[in-house]
Amino acid sequence: MDLPRKPTQAHVSAAVILLALVSLATVDGRKPCPNSNCEEFPAINCRKYSAVLTEFGAVGDGVTSNTHAFRQAIEHLKPLAAAGGAQLFVPAGKWLTGSFNLTSHFTLFLHKDAQILASQDESEWPLVAILPSYGRGRDAPGGRFSSLIYGTNLTDVVITGNNGTIDGQGSYWWDKFHKNELNVTRPYLIEIMYSDQIQISNLTLVNSPSWFVHPIYSSNVIIQGLTILAPIDSPNTDGIDPDSCTNTRIEDCFIVSGDDCIAVKSGWDQYGIRFGMPTEHLLIRRLTCISPDSAGIALG
Ligand SMILES: *[C@@H]1O[C@H](CO)[C@@H](O)[C@H](O)[C@H]1NC(C)=O
Ligand SMILES: *[C@@H]1O[C@H](CO)[C@@H](O)[C@H](O)[C@H]1NC(C)=O
Ligand SMILES: *[C@@H]1O[C@H](CO)[C@@H](O)[C@H](O)[C@H]1NC(C)=O
Ligand SMILES: *[C@@H]1O[C@H](CO)[C@@H](O)[C@H](O)[C@H]1NC(C)=O
Ligand SMILES: *[C@@H]1O[C@H](CO)[C@@H](O)[C@H](O)[C@H]1NC(C)=O
């Protein structure tokens, strides 16, 4: 949220919230695994193919741009979607990259010591269309940058790892925001649109340029075991924003941020009303939230 409706509080409030908005028996729409030992992590264990980011020329030194490597890797794995799906493994290291797109029947898996670092070079961030339920960009009426990890019109996508890190290196964007220099809306860290069967789990996400996790116009979304960290004075760093989604489960997340920890949305004001796609069947449980000036869970 970035509307001027924030309560002011003198102290950091830590709230442990146990809330079931709508309790669902199951929101896991994934198909059953063929073998019985992969129940805990069906999608990952069931991918037929896998590849390692370094096979595509990536260098994990924190300096070399790996945008091309990520895009090439996923382009290469995309045709395997219909043949059993694929996993891209990101090994230990610091992998600097601009925005890249996911594909269907796909797992992005981060080693526990892998850090994906978002590029601060705007040429590595393509522009994408304005969201129809937002009518304009949130930072500026012009275009908007694609999120660091972006997916649209997908089925069965998993972004996970043994608590590996995705770092948005947001200070570049926060400075532009504070100096009023944004003519294009800032990127989010992860945005998935028009998709079904999404799982984002067991990761640490830090310093997003703006919102962290934004599933929109999607269904059967599981968000689990995320640690989300941003300075409490960073602008618009909402943790998780389920937006016009059906069947979403958010659990076991720890969020420290400069804005709402979770903001449940259905577009933006009159644009959202006109678009008319509500968020339905949402379960939020075991959320720990520290956000002194914003909400633990906001509606709208
Ligand atoms: C990702 O997909 C969107 C929508 O199809 C497209 O506009 C954008 O250019 C793609 N980004 C990359 C890096 O290919
Ligand atoms: C994605 O799905 C939406 C909604 O069904 C549709 O309007 C849009 O054209 C699709 N985009 C692509 C790139 O297939
Ligand atoms: C993941 O890493 C974060 C940041 O280091 C840490 O706070 C959190 O406890 C870790 N989570 C798990 C499940 O190990
Ligand atoms: C934003 O500003 C930059 C330079 O200030 C310019 O190159 C770019 O074309 C502008 N983008 C839009 C969408 O107006
Ligand atoms: C996440 O990690 C926990 C504990 O480390 C593990 O039990 C669980 O299966 C993992 N879940 C997912 C969905 O990755």
Automatic annotation (TrEMBL):
Localization: Secreted, Cell wall
**Any GO BP:** carbohydrate metabolic process
Q: Which GO terms describe its molecular function?
A: polygalacturonase activity
The superkingdom listed in its UniProt entry is: Eukaryota
Signal sequence: where?
1-29
Kindly give the InterPro entries that the UniProt entry links to this protein.
GH28_Enzymes, Glyco_hydro_28, Pectin_lyas_fold, Pectin_lyase_fold/virulence
What's the main place this protein lives? secreted
The keyword Signal belongs to this UniProt entry's keyword annotation: yes
Keywords, alphabetical: Cell wall, Glycosidase, Hydrolase, Secreted, Signal
Q: Which family does it belong to?
A: Belongs to the glycosyl hydrolase 28 family.
Name of the protein in question:
Probable polygalacturonase
Source organism (scientific name): Momordica charantia
